[in-house]
Amino acid sequence: LCAVCALCYGGSLRGEFVHDDVWAIVNNPDVRVASPLRNLFLNDFWGKSMADNTSHKSYRPLCILTFKLNILLTGMTPYYFHLVNVILHCLVTALLKYTCEKAVFRDGRLAFVTAFLFAVHPIHTEA
What we know:
Elements: H1 2-9, H2 21-26, H3 39-42, H4 61-74, H5 78-104, H6 108-120
């Protein structure tokens, strides 16, 4: 399953920041190393205060934390952001298979098919 994920999304490793990446990562003050961690919990996804009436109100502190960690460890290099996303997709796919196998279907084949469909589903190309 991880090989399927890598095959489907490995091409993204060579890509640049696109679309909302510029606002969510490049222009977001909360992902900067100097920005206090508490801002992750006080601001929306775009770095605006949740109390601000112009805030989008999209609250995703863990996502912003991963961006902040990427910058801390590897700088503002798109390759590493894409690599982390592919790795996370592989891990979530494996976790889905495990959960389906142990708690949902209790059938390894059905769990594999479910996880495979999740791994290759085109909805994930936007993320």
